[in-house]
Amino acid sequence: MLRDGAMRGKTIIVTGGGTGLGKSITRYLLQLGANVTICSRRQAVLDETARELMSEPDRPADAGEVLAIQCDVRNPAEIEQVISQTIEKFGKIDGLLNNSAGNFISPTERLSYKAFDTIVDIVLRGTYYFTLAVGKYWIENSIPGVVLNISTTYASTGSGYVVPSAVAKGGALIMTKSLAAEWGKYGIRLNAIAPGPFPTKGAWDRLFPEPLASVMDPTKRIPLKRVGEHGELANLAAYLLSDYSGFITGETVTIDGGEVLAAGEFNHLEQVSSEQWDMIEQSIKQANRASKKEGQ
Ligand SMILES: CCCCCCCCC/C=C/C(=O)SCCNC(=O)CCNC(=O)[C@H](O)C(C)(C)COP(=O)(O)OP(=O)(O)OC[C@H]1O[C@@H](n2cnc3c(N)ncnc32)[C@H](O)[C@@H]1OP(=O)(O)O
Ligand SMILES: NC(=O)C1=CN([C@@H]2O[C@H](COP(=O)(O)OP(=O)(O)OC[C@H]3O[C@@H](n4cnc5c(N)ncnc54)[C@H](OP(=O)(O)O)[C@@H]3O)[C@@H](O)[C@H]2O)C=CC1
Description:
Distance between the termini: 62 Å
Order of helices and strands: EHEHEHEHEHHEHHHEH
Family: Belongs to the short-chain dehydrogenases/reductases (SDR) family.
Number of helices: 10
Strand order of the largest sheet: 3-2-1-4-5-6-7
Function: Participates in chain elongation of fatty acids. Catalyzes the reduction of trans-2-enoyl-CoAs of varying chain lengths from 6:1 to 16:1, having maximum activity with 10:1 CoA. Has no 2,4-dienoyl-CoA reductase activity.
Main location: other
Structural class: alpha/beta
Bound molecules: ligand 8Z2, NADPH dihydro-nicotinamide-adenine-dinucleotide phosphate
Number of strands: 7
Number of domains: 1
GO biological process, one term: fatty acid biosynthetic process
CATH class: Alpha Beta
Subunit structure: Interacts with PEX5, probably required to target it into peroxisomes.
CATH superfamily: NAD(P)-binding Rossmann-like Domain
């Protein structure tokens, strides 16, 4: 979507950039000329992704470079290492994509305290630790910056069976708005993306495992009748991390094919056939005529 070289000279940190959506966004940022630090718990996964992204056949000559650093986002010392190594390698940091997450479906009453903590710590604590660390660096050095948080649609609606994730994503979303208000004066913007279903191994293994996958079609409840494509999310993420979105802050952009609209009172009427609509129309018009007569 963005023109070639649109992110040249920018350095972005992508948490969870070794897999799934973080990897797809990293690929696009590199193509647009950004340097990208990817970080997560598994160094071997990060190294393999870095190797793959640096040797892609269609990699433009002026594509950015990737740096892979092990980091558990629950550990501030490791986050500070990522920041200092990124500055050492690329000179500065312009953007942070908080994309790391942990999640699984479960009836909430089956969760141990530790299970709940694990999800909240990765998603909420990890997001505010990283944002705080990078934000302090930007403010101390008078550098304008941009934070993009990968949220979910249920951060606003709530959802059963993923309650720790909903609690944590909801908290991160309100942090996005709160800090957008507070740090705007430093030239720091914060936005969020709320994606619907985008197939990744990490999400599908934990949110759509067998036997659900055999009996449920997640596209049925999506008005556009399909799941998202990684390129569609990468386009939006690159735009929100770029200077082209320079007047957007505190915003959450939903990208879900309309799935979140499912609450609409009458949406289920798509099951009504054309013949049934003929009958319904006649019935309503008859009621209209009757009520007019009553008024005469
Ligand atoms: C429609 C299509 C989709 C559509 C999807 C569309 C919307 C999706 C929106 C959001 C999507 C995402 O976030 S997708 C992101 C998915 N990706 C990931 O989750 C990647 C990272 N995940 C992980 O590493 C693991 O899954 C995770 C458990 C979170 C962390 O692993 P750890 O090794 O740190 O932790 P563990 O020691 O294994 O587990 C910690 C505790 O959690 C408990 N635990 C783990 N799994 C459990 C389970 N299934 N049920 C109960 N409890 C569980 C353990 O027993 C431990 O508690 P004790 O027994 O008490 O010790
Ligand atoms: N796929 C989808 O349909 C949707 C996804 N999302 C969101 O998109 C983002 C990416 O998810 P997706 O690509 O699907 O799934 P992935 O499982 O591929 O991505 C999650 C990433 O988080 C990293 N991670 C997990 N725990 C930690 C930790 N403690 N410290 C650092 N990194 C960690 C993982 O790497 P490692 O294991 O090496 O640490 C992994 O790279 C998440 O924020 C998710 O909530 C939102 C809505 C829908």
